[in-house]
Amino acid sequence: MDNAARIEQALERSVSLVGKRQCPPKLINAVRYAVFPGGARVRPQLTMAVAAACEEGDSPLVDGAAAAIELLHCASLVHDDLPCFDDADLRRGKASVHSLYGEEIAVLVGDALIVQAFQSIAESCGENPQYLPELITCVAGSVGMKGGIVAGQAWESEDVVDVKEYHCAKTGSLFVGAVSAGALAVGSDPQPWRQLGSKIGEAYQLADDLLDALGTEEEGGKPVGQDASNCRPNAVASLGFQGAVDRLNKTVGEAVSAIPDCKGANGLSSLIAAQAKRLVPAKAATQAA
Question: Which of 144, 215, 247, 284 could bond 219 through an S-S bridge, CB–CB 3.0 to 4.6 Å?
Fold first, then answer.
């Protein structure tokens, strides 16, 4: 089974743990809507790729960790789209959760996905319970209020913002968590992988800034122009178009260089390059050519 199929199977298994018997129908339906069908699943792909590079990588805990990372990403999207934040009606090319199910359910969907992420890890650790404490601590850190996604979202409510810290928290933290979780799920040291996660997160933020400034809703599957309308930092606004493209290309190169010496280096390099290319809006790619 390839990694894409493993990820979908792991997500289905995790969401199905909830069952329908005691869960309010609207909530479970909205949870499923938020998770399926998904985007490129890049973060769980990285978790699995790093696990495979460290060891065999084919274990229930690797699958559970990968599913957890994606569930946390989905939760962040649901919350990010809420009227109190971006007030976005579109996500992944379809109606956002709050615009379809209502704001109250959307808040609960985000909360439920966060809880389900940690249940996914706990339910899959039977063969390697000794890895659980470090893995839980790592994943929790990537979404927490000290440098995690919660901190990243909260920076948007501050009057004075350190842009680098904001981007590291909101975008980079889960990428660092994804690669670190892949190593920890097979009992390996996550430290050599953290720089890779950080650089991929930085590249994704740059690509997202380009998409927001120059892309279309069809390309991104979400509203564009959000940074300007919400007075948020954007690489195109601060560096100019060519400066942002140059910075993205440089950062992708740094991400590839940050891959530790391992048997899966070529595959990881290809994954990073392909995703970077996919995220750059057509207008930006044409102008840069």
Answer: 215
